[in-house]
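Posting for a labmate who doesn't have an account.
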Amino acid sequence: MKYRKLGRTGFDVSEIAHGLWGVSGWSGSEDGQSLEAMQLAVNFGVNFFDTAWAYGDGKSDALLGKIMGRNKNKRLYAASKIPPMNLKWPASPTDKYSDVFPAKHVFEYAEKIRTKLGVDSIDLLQFHVWEDVWTGEPEFRKTVEKLKSDGLIKFFGLSLNRWQPENGIIAIRTGLVDAVQVIYNIFDQAPEDKLFPVCRELNIGVIARVPLDEGSLGGKMKADMKFPEGDWRAKYFGPENLAATLPRVEKLKELVPPGMTLPEMALRFIVSNPDVSTTIVGMRKPDHVRNNIATSDAGALPADLLSALKSHRWDREPTRWSD
């Protein structure tokens, strides 16, 4: 496992991070197996874990707390997220900051998360949605500064809305934001345009999420695939998106070099970008861990393959099935 600085936090974090959304109740998740996978990840050198209160109303925070408690001799980093009070994903410019992240709500959930994790101070606490028009709200600055001065958190970050990588740059320039989490993968390359240069300039940590496009870049989806009712992917990969996605995945398969898999190529595409501090991968099962951890050891992709993958950029706009 290789490590990179998470921007100005100074944290040395594993290139491959463990994303815990899938352990919070997705179909096929089981707590015992999830904990086994998380421990295996720790054994292989993963030290950065991404969670959120919204992942099972604190369930994934609690599972991470168990793992951290079992590994007190190792420095594990916990990054969690405050849910929007109005429970709207993504945020909209028409939403009022006071309806989404009022101070009382933020501090209530920061304390809940801290308790579930079993820590004195949360390494990185993020707002789970963001809208840059809120940046000038005085309460935003007061809240972030108090979270830090009270010792509830060490650093603060934003999880940017799906396919809106530039909707956070104004907030970053306030000096309040230490890290951003953004969708970045072979299809979704837009963060390279404006967000990454700003993060590079200001030494902001970059957490890449959705590296496999919610699973399509795993290469196993079929046109007749159905997810169980209640599984978020049933909405995301409904007929409209699945029909548009599968042909693009098939074209990518033609570029996979011998001895490499599509998911490995997808992960190494992200690892190849030095602007990315760490990449969140969902790993609900031990086999997921073994396969994904090897990506860090393999390193960057060859320059000619990276160049070919650039042409597979797919700029998308948020829609009813993508929220």
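Reply:
Got it, the structure tokens are right above this. Residues 3-310 form a domain with the TIM Barrel fold (CATH 3.20.20.100).
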